[in-house]
Design goal:
4-stranded mixed β-sheet; 423 residues
Length: 423
Amino acid sequence: MEFKSIKEFREYLRRYNSNSFVEVGTSICWQEWQNGGPRISPLGQVIKNSRRNYALRLILLASAGNPYRNQAITVQEFESLIDVLSNFANHTISNKTLLDTEAEYTFNSLHTWEQDNCKTVRNWKLLLSDIFTKELIRKNGGHLFLQRQALFQNSGFWTPLALVQLARVQRTMKVFEILNSIDLNTINFFESSTKFNHEFYFVQFMSSIGYFLKTRFRGGGVLDFKKSFDIDFDDELKSKGYTEENLRIFVRLNSRVFSSSDRDSFRNIVTERLNNTSEVYHPFFYNSFLDYPFIDLGHDKYCLPDACSLMESSWNITCKHLPSNKILDQAFEQYLANVLLPIIAPNCFEKIREVENPQSSDDKRADFLITLPNVYIIIECKNSLMSSDTSVCFNPKGLASLWGRIHGATEQISSTINPHSAP
């Protein structure tokens, strides 16, 4: 099976009923991480995880198709399409001038960003366009492209209930606690928005995977709330929030109807992202299951296509119910001051006082100073979250904005201390 372009590949997907891709793809995603076993080699784990990611990508690409087609995709055909996407020797997206084009777009986007933010950059000692020439961007573009591809293929590595995945949820819980210590309205706002006890909310990540594992719909992944549950939790577990009703609330809250005329349907969300992504990057565009891990199939029936994406989504879906993103800056500073720096640099760090300059709101300084015998370490905290598209594939505007924010932190550091002075 060969295709001349990703456009031709997507047209081929449209011949099938898009709902069947969800059903078959979900089965394959769950099988890939369940059937490994303890004896599988490290290389075998990498290959299975890569195939799971390609299966997930096929679900996303096909979800923009037609749910009313008569022809359904089979497991064998789905597996063949995974092989097509992972066939690097004859890949469908090969483009010999891709890196040259990326360098051109990135360089032009940097200039545009500086022009649009002229008030911000006018006092900078060094402009980004002075550092990043087309030649420099092109020189480093190759290995950055490979890093993006490696990140895509190995996303969600390990099993959903491995310690490294559980740590994602635990980190989210810790940050949530810090946010509430800064703004005591955080918990009230969160619980009002989710209609959920915040402690019970976080245990539903593990509860969801356990419930969905118990379903036997082609290997798991689909849950019908109209059918009776075969899981009995004792009173102690129920007191911690492990109940059917809590799971139902959690799943509904973090799901979207798969296909409907509603603008917020999963199909329309994916289609909009595809339309805003260059065709050559369609196989690697953003995984929307990180925002909405569950699919509403109708009649109180839900699908969890990828358990690994659910664990990775913990921060994304929690952020939707915060009173303001502005407290993230404060939370990160507090985390450094109260948790991280006392561990890695006890007794040698200090918080730098804010500058009070009524003449200029731009007169800012860095946040922390670590003093060591032979070196100063200066830390500036920035709420510079990448756009989801920038972190996954090539987005020159998003990249220019990110680099601008990072360089802005460097300029603040240079205003804090004379780099030529010795400790």
